[in-house]
Amino acid sequence: PLFTLGARGGEHDDIPVEGADGDGGEETGGGDAFPVTTPVVPSDPPPPPPQFPPDGPDLAIVIVSELKANAALFAAFAFGALNLPPALTVSESKVTSVTTSVSVARPLPDSELLKAFVVLDAVTLCLMISCVAASQLLIYRLADGSWYTALPPAGTPSALGRLVTTYRAEFTVARLTFDLGVVSLLLAVAVRAVAVFDRSIFEPVAAVIFATSVAVGI
Predict the structure, then answer these.
(1) CA 189, 195, 197, 202 torsion-angle sign
(2) CA dist., res. 90 & res. 106, Å (int)
(3) Which of 20, 26, 185, 187 could pair with 124 in a Cys bridge, judged by C-beta atoms 3.0 to 4.6 Å apart?
(4) How confident is the model at residue 120 (pLDDT cuts 50, 70, 90)?
């Protein structure tokens, strides 16, 4: 269809417009066609960036699992260290029959350093096992849904911050037992080195243990 617009001087120009048949506003008569603009449809907004940390306790479980794995490794080392070297044992043979005998290796009975090493090694083993147990209990708590029900304190957006605040008791026990276990392990290594070798090695061993303790503390 066409309609006319009045122009100056009484003249009329036939102006084509877009019809119902959707011909795209092509020119069908005299005069210029109105420009047809296609409306811009806004696209979907981009997805929001992922939050850090994620809503779930996955990162916290990874942190605690790493602590548990290291504690289990040190516990295995402490248990294996109870097998004393030949320099700290005395072999005794016991005849059981005319043709057979049994050899038994016993620790040196009068060695104070050996006793100190065994005590420190047993302390290391117990502390690391306690760390493993506390870490496992903390993993259970993280996976039971309490991560979503417990409201995080303000200013603790990270997974480690949630562990320190929301799960303070379990995480403190795990960290404290692990740190004390590392200290007792270093002392046990120093005592064993002095017991196996000459006492003149005490100074370099003490220096190495002190430097390692400072590095771990930092």
Answers:
(1) positive
(2) 5
(3) 185
(4) very high
SS3 of the chain: helix, strand, coil, percent, to 5: 55, 10, 35
Give the span between the Cα atoms of 201 and 195, in whole angstroms: 10
> Can you give the pLDDT at residue 79?
92
Helix (H, G, I), strand (E, B) or coil at 138: helix
Q: DSSP strand E in the chain: where?
A: 2-6, 12-16, 89-95, 101-107
**What totals of helices (H) and strands (E) does the chain contain, helices first?**
6, 4
Average pLDDT over residues 161-174: 90
How far apart, in whole angstroms, are the C-alpha atoms of residue 91 and residue 148?
Answer: 60
Cis ω before 53 (30° cut-off from 0): yes
b/e per residue 2-14 (b: at least 16 CB within 10 A): eeeeeeeeeeeee
Q: Are 138 and 61 in contact (CB under 8 A)?
A: no
Q: Which of 131, 143, 137 is nearest to 180 (CA)?
A: 131
Residue type, 171: F
The residues, any chain, with a CB within 8 Å of residue 15's CB and separated by 6 or more, are 2, 3, 4, 5, 29, 31, 32, 33, 34
pTM: 0.65
